[in-house]
Design a protein that fits this description.
The protein has 225 residues and is of the alpha+beta class. It has one domain: C8orf32 fold. The chain is 36% helix and 18% strand. The chain has a 4-stranded antiparallel sheet with strand order 5-4-3-6.
């Protein structure tokens, strides 16, 4: 699959932006606490990844018409977020510690999800799924800190780990050998979350999810065991 990356210097991905707000006080505290005592960028990235994956609950139910739903600091404050928000938080935390970071987007087919979400979405394709890209060593590495341990247990999939050196993308199969996640299209990468585009696409693609589901719904509780 072809990956379309912005042709910019890694240093262009170190400063705070509107939604990857690495200068927010609470984001800075979160990053420093998660990577306390860690010295190398690779190890820092690993610890940040684990903190975002495990401490921030994943939910596909969010207010797509609210810009705060996409902001790293808002995701941290809420303690939950959908994939783009969690990726923004990892990216913001990495930038604060001097690791270039950005947002990547892809369409994925999710073969394992809750019956209610599948009915509301009217598709098993998650359009514009978000993940982080971190510049470690001399190359970009994709990191997907999305599904927390509780959700992975409910879905019978292995917890996705990140070693700081190789891409951490969703597993293709669950622990029973059933098809799980399938990457369809990579859309590219962005220095900041492309909120205007995402808001328009979410309204177009998933009007029922946005209009009929409470944002505090517990996705893990309803997910397939």
């Amino acid at each position: 699959m072809i990956f379309k990356a912005e042709k910019l210097d890694p240093d262009d991905y170190l400063t705070a932006t509107e939604y990857i707000d690495s200068d927010h006080p609470q984001v800075r505290v979160f990053a420093e606490r998660a990577a306390k005592g860690v010295q190398t960028p690779v190890d820092m990235a690993r610890y940040l990844y684990d903190a975002v994956r495990d401490d921030i609950r994943y939910t596909p139910y969010f207010n797509a018409a609210d810009r705060e739903s996409y902001r790293a600091s808002s995701c941290l404050a809420a303690g939950r977020g959908y994939c783009v928000a969690k990726a923004a938080l990892l990216s913001a935390s990495a930038r604060h510690l001097g690791i270039p970071a950005r947002i990547g987007l892809a369409d994925v087919r999710n073969h394992l999800t809750s019956a209610r979400l599948r009915q509301l979405m009217n598709t098993d394709i998650f359009y514009y799924h978000g993940f982080a890209e971190l510049y470690l060593g001399d190359h970009w590495v994709r990191a997907t800190p999305i599904f927390d341990a509780r959700l992975c247990q409910r879905l019978n999939v292995s917890l996705l780990k990140f070693d700081g050196c190789h891409d951490a993308l969703f597993h293709s199969y669950d622990n029973s050998g059933q098809r799980y996640m399938e990457y369809l299209v990579y859309h590219g990468s962005w220095r900041d979350v492309p909120v205007d585009m995402l808001m328009a696409e979410m309204r177009r693609l998933y009007p029922r999810v946005i209009g009929e589901t409470p944002v505090d719904a517990d996705f893990a509780a309803e997910a397939r065991i």
